[in-house]
Structures are given as structure tokens and as C-alpha cells.
Amino acid sequence: MRLPAWCAPRWPALPAALAILLWLASPCAARAAAPGGAEPAGRAQATVRAYAKAQPYAQALVHPKAQAQEARAQAALAAGDYAAAYAAYVRAAPRSPLAQFMAGVFHQQGWGRARDPAAACAWFEKAAARGVPAAAHFWGDCLAQGTGRPADSPADSRADSPADIPRALAAYRSAAEGGHLISWCAAADYLIEGRGVPKDAALGLALCAQAAQAHSAPAMLKLAGYHQSGSALPQDLAAARRWYAEAARHGAPEGQYRLGLMLAQGEGGPPDLDAALHWLERAAAAGFAPAYLPTAQLYASLPVQANSGALAPEHLAKIYLWTSAAKAAAADAQQRAAAGQLEAQVLAAMPVSWRPALDRRVTEHLAKSSPGAASAVVVNR
């Protein structure tokens, strides 16, 4: 899976090692993790390559005796040897807050083991206390969810400990002040909804806006969602559209997709089908699967050619490309059926000789963005 541009670490004032760790605690990393706890080998290797490149900067944070153990851990993780990598991180942990954080990630993500939230939280608490912002964010999650320490810990800190929202918000603040900007929005969720703390929607919005104004695309998406849903705040579609536009311009595929839908439907401002198609296709090209079918549908709604009474050939090809991708990547039968209906209509007008070349393009695209869906292109034919 290729990282979208907006997922790249953007904390130039911090040591590069911390920037990588901050990314690990971001929504990008959460979305990258495979279901069921297994992480694709490619993702682990990409993480380790980035982490290894940052190693010269990490030396200031890690005791010299732990550096060799961390190097062995990184090499083992890159090779897919989770057991050896975990053991090396644990050996380095007493002298390295980064190793403590990584040990927590193993338990959180289920790398080479069953997921163990309590064990992950125990490691994140240690790393947070030693100044790793990403660990502070995850420790905030632990406190907010009431996930304590392993069962052999003292009785007053067991895994069934109650949620502690005030302490969670303090942890999120520590993470945000350390550079993990999206943590402001994590705190905002509780303030806006009044969960576990007195409700203060204005403060919550201000905190999340602080992160968005610092160019955090995930924070921009959060703000847009607050304004669009109207669940905890009065609905403001114009504000939602503005923040989705900011996220789209920062390269966030979800922002491009949601902005495209609002432009197409005239939500939060006048409709603009040309701009809608531009942003939806940007999201689709980035591999954001929900954008595939809307992109095809907008192409299908374009005016026909005056001389032929049919859609332009390039538009027919685009409809076929994106409906094929939608069929392969669709999460449910209803979406596949809608894509199949549109595909049948375009096949009635498109020359059969176009299909082999177009099918290859679809397969290549899906192989980059969703390897499991690429094989479905052949199966569905």
C-alpha cells in the first residue's frame, strides 16, 4: 500500500525519529493496519525503513547500549521476524523510550501475536512518561477507554479499570504540545460531546481548529465532520465544505471525496459538477475506493456529443474503468449491483476491443491501492 502524501510525517521541528513515531499514532497508521491484527509485510518493512533512516537522530534519545538492540529489532521486523524483533525491543526498552513505544505497538497491532490492549497500554504509559508524544496519545486512548494494565499488575490498575476522561485529556494535551497535532481533536471529541467532562463545544472546536490551522489534514477532516453531521453541534454545511476543501488541497483522499460529493449535490454552496468530478477522480486515482462509483456516475451524467448523440469515447472509457474498480472493491452487494448496472450500460455502447487494455489499467491500479481487489477484476469477468 502506498502512503498518500498527506500521511507523510510533517513535524520538521522534531527529530525525525519522533516524527516517524508520531505518524504511527496517526489515522494513517490506523487505516494501514490490516483487519484481524495482521499487518502486511510491506507495511512493516516500510515502517522500519523510515524508522531506520531516522536512526541518526534517535541516538540522542536512546542510551548507547540500546542502539545495537534497536538495530537488530529493526532488521528483524523488516525481515518479518516478529518474535525476534519484539524480543530485541523489549531488551532495549529499559534504556529506550522509543523501544518501549514499539513494544506497545506490537501488542496494539497484533504483530506476530494476538492483540493485547492491556499490555500495549502498559508500554505506552512508560513511553509517554519519558516524552514520546505518540505514546502519550495512545495512553490517552487507554485512559479514555478504561484499558488498564495486564492482569498481573497491582489490583488497583487492572485491565477493567474505569475510564478516566480528565486524565485522558491531559495525555492528549501532552501529545499535542509535543507535536502530535491530531491529539487536540481527540480531546475535542470529549469536550464537544460532554463525555466524562463538562461539555464545552467552543473549546473543543478551538482545540481541533488549532491542529487544522497547523496544516493537519486529519484535523481538517475532523472539523468538517463535526460541522456536517449536526449531531453534537448545529449543522453548518458551508463550514464543512470549507474544511473538506482545505483537506482536499492538502492531499487527503477522503477530503477530496467528501468535497466532491458536496459539490455535486450543492451542499454548503452552489453545485459545481466540473469541480466535483475533478476532486472525486483525484480521490479515486489515489485508491480511495468509495470514490470509484461516484466518479463513474458523474462521467455518465456528462452531456452527449452533438454530432453522435453519444458520450465522448474518453468518457465511456472512464466510466468503464471506474465501474470496474468499484465492482472489484465494493464492500457490499448493493454497491456491486449499482456498479454492475452502470457497467452494463457502458458495455452496450463501448467497443469490445477496448476491454483488454482497460482491464489491464484497472488491474494495475487496484494492485497498487488494494492488492486483494486486483484479482477480483479477473474473477468478475
Characterize the biggest β-sheet: none
Quaternary organisation: single chain
Strand tally is: 0
Shape: globular
Report the average pLDDT across residues. 82
Percent in strands: under 5%
Features:
single chain, 381 residues, mainly alpha, Serine Threonine Protein Phosphatase 5, Tetratricopeptide repeat, 66% helix, 0% strand, disordered N terminus, disordered C terminus
Polypeptide structure, described:
With 381 residues, the protein is an all-alpha fold. The chain folds into three domains: 1-115, no CATH class; 117-152 and 162-214, Serine Threonine Protein Phosphatase 5, Tetratricopeptide repeat (Alpha Horseshoe); 311-379, no CATH class. 66% of the residues lie in helices and 0% in strands. It is built from 21 helices and no strands. The protein has helices at 16-24, 27-32, 41-53, 55-58, 64-78, 82-92, 97-109, 117-129, 133-145, 165-177, 183-193, 201-213, 217-229, 237-249, 253-265, 273-285, 292-300, 313-329, 333-347, 355-369, 371-379. Helix 13 packs antiparallel against helix 14. The radius of gyration is 23 Å and the shape is globular. Residues 1-41, 45-60, 155-159 and 374-381 have low confidence and may be disordered.
